[in-house]
């Protein structure tokens, strides 16, 4: 019997529905359950063919557990090695190389020195930075947010240079992005599962959190296809099995605003019943696909085009 597990934290509606949906399908030789961990021994199997990861970004112990599980043949959704390496600034950099429109973005060193460093640790960094060049490139209004992580934490809208320096002084040891504001006519949040299943949802980020999915944009079939193609391209290059991409349409052009969300919101209360039903059914179907294909003792992870193309240039040993 192959087991599909889901690893989660405080959330309840999606994990419970995910497990119930798989088991209701009664796939031959497969069952689903919440992941149960009693001990983690190096190089020993987790006992799961597939694990859907919803929490390791906040729990380093879980991330280490998942890497060991993957080494022993578990298909982990999402790949814990890539997730550990990825961050929002790299995603923007990659987008510029694969034909995905993104806002003008720069990365900034932390306002305060990181632990165990001094001014001498930054011998290669100019001080002051070329603030004039940075502000001319990005423009105002602009947004400042952490280069990694999510959840709308430490996000600032800045209208001018004075506001930038005032708010940047509050960011401590966080490494921040400064990003062009895209004044949009329409905005969408798009689930992508398995690098092939896409759900495009109207979304209004200016609403209170519980009302952000209360939007009713009506994209044409052409716009839907254009957005679907961008979402697939992004996720196939990054290698995420489960992710959301946020697209802001300005003058009809979809700009990828945020596309590093490997544990995206899937709560029934926030995404709404129709979106919830889609993500539960699609995630369950995809997890079963992965369980059927999984082979013990081999690499069952998804690796994106960026990594695979780089690896293909390595000499054979």
Q: Give Rg in angstroms.
A: 21 Å
Count the E strands. 12
Shape descriptor: globular
User: Proportion of β residues?
Assistant: 15-25%
N-to-C SSE series?
EHEEHEHHEHEEHEEEHEEHHH
For the largest sheet, list the strands in their spatial order: 2-1-3-4
Mean model confidence by pLDDT: 95
Structural class, by secondary structure, is alpha/beta
* Poorly predicted residue ranges: none
In short:
The protein is an alpha/beta fold and 317 residues long. The protein contains 10 helices and 12 strands. The chain has a 4-stranded parallel β-sheet, with helices on both faces. Strands 5-8-6-7 form a 4-stranded antiparallel β-sheet, with helices on both faces.
For the structure shown, list the relevant keywords.
four-stranded antiparallel beta sheet; four-stranded parallel beta sheet; 317 residues; alpha/beta
Description:
- The protein has helices spanning 13-25, 60-71, 80-85, 88-97, 131-138, 161-168, 221-238, 268-271, 273-293, 305-311, and strands spanning 2-7, 30-34, 50-53, 75-77, 105-108, 142-146, 156-158, 176-180, 186-193, 197-202, 242-250, 253-258.
- With 317 residues, it is α/β, with parallel strands linked by helices.
- The strands form three sheets. A four-stranded parallel beta sheet has the order 2-1-3-4, with helices on both faces. The chain has a four-stranded antiparallel beta sheet with strand order 5-8-6-7, sandwiched between helices.
- A hairpin with a 2-residue loop joins strand 11 and strand 12 (253-258).
- The radius of gyration is 21 Å and the shape is globular.
- The two termini are 36 Å apart.
């Amino acid at each position: 019997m192959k087991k599909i597990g889901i690893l989660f934290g405080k959330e309840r509606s999606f994990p419970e529905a995910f497990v119930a949906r798989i088991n209701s399908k009664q796939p031959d030789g497969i069952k689903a359950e919440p992941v149960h961990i009693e001990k983690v021994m190096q190089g020993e199997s987790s006992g799961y063919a597939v694990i859907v990861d919803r929490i390791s970004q906040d729990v380093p112990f879980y991330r280490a557990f998942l890497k060991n599980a993957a080494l022993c043949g578990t298909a982990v959704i999402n790949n814990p090695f890539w997730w550990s390496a990825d961050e929002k600034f790299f995603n923007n950099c990659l987008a510029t190389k694969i034909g995905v429109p993104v806002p003008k973005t720069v990365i900034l060193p932390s306002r305060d020195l990181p632990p165990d460093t001094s001014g001498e640790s930054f011998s290669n960094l100019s001080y002051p930075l070329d603030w004039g060049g940075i502000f001319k490139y990005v423009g105002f209004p602009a947004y400042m947010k952490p280069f990694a992580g999510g959840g709308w934490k430490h996000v600032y809208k800045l209208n001018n240079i004075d506001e930038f320096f005032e708010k940047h002084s509050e960011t401590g040891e966080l490494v921040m992005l400064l990003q062009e504001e895209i004044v949009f006519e329409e905005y969408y949040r798009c689930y992508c599962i398995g690098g092939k299943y896409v759900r495009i949802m109207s979304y209004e980020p200016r609403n209170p959190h519980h009302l952000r999915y209360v939007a009713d944009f009506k994209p044409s079939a052409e716009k839907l296809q254009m957005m679907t193609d961008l979402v697939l391209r992004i996720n196939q290059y990054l290698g995420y099995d489960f992710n959301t991409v946020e697209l802001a349409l300005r003058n009809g052009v979809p700009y990828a605003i945020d596309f590093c969300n490997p544990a995206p919101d899937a709560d029934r209360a926030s995404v709404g019943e129709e979106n919830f039903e889609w993500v539960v059914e699609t995630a369950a179907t995809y997890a079963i696909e992965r369980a059927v294909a999984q082979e013990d003792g081999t690499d069952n992870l998804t690796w994106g085009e960026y990594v695979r193309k780089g690896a293909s240039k390595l000499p054979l040993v």
